Amino acid sequence: MYDIIFFVLVILYTLVSAKVDEWITISALGFKMETPEMFLKHPRYYDVIRSALFLSAIAVFFAMSTKYAGGGIIALAWFGAGWVGRKKAFKNYRQIIREMKFHEEDKEQRAKYESELNKTDQELMEMVQTSMKYGL
């Protein structure tokens, strides 16, 4: 019984956390319009929801009989959700830049968009960190 509840909580946590990380990342990259209005108004609500799901999964984890598998699953969900969320945000960012480049007539601006498209995930992550550090 606890195992089923645990897996449901972990799946919910993973889905919610990946989406929240995607929204945080795409917002930090300058495309807040790609996030829901409620997230823009109250981002802490979403942090509270995903924290509650995570803590609930941990609470149920202690009641489970298979603790080793559960611990690995929680760790995988925690690290995996952030990774998936950022990857989806980077993909979305590149798609937006690609569309902007397609519709741009100015060659200089098109070249700028092209350089943005050629940035690696690591470079985009540095942009996110800088944006978050300075509150941009």
Describe the 3D structure:
By secondary structure, this protein is an all-alpha fold. It has one domain (2-134). It has six helices and no strands. It has helices at residues 2-28, 37-41, 43-61, 67-103, 107-117, 121-134. Helix 1 (2-28) packs parallel to helix 4, helix 3 (43-61) runs antiparallel to helix 4 and helix 4 runs antiparallel to helix 5 (107-117). The model has no long low-confidence stretch (mean pLDDT 91).
Name a few traits of the molecule.
single chain; 136 residues; mainly alpha; 6 helices; 0% strand
Summarize the structure.
The protein has 136 residues and is mostly helical. Helices cover 83% and strands 0% of the residues. It has one domain (2-134).
Helix and strand layout, with pairings?
Layout: H1 2-28, H2 37-41, H3 43-61, H4 67-103, H5 107-117, H6 121-134
Helix pairs in contact: 1-3, 1-4, 3-4, 4-5
Given the helix and strand composition, which structural class is it? mainly alpha
Biggest β-sheet description = none
Q: How helical, in percent, are the residues?
A: over 70%
Tell the overall outline. elongated
Count helical runs.
6
List SSEs in N-to-C order: HHHHHH
Strand content: under 5%
How many E strands?
Answer: 0
Distance between the termini: 46 Å
Radius of gyration: 18 Å
Q: Uncertain runs with pLDDT below 50, 5 residues or more?
A: none
Number of domains: 1
Mean pLDDT: 91
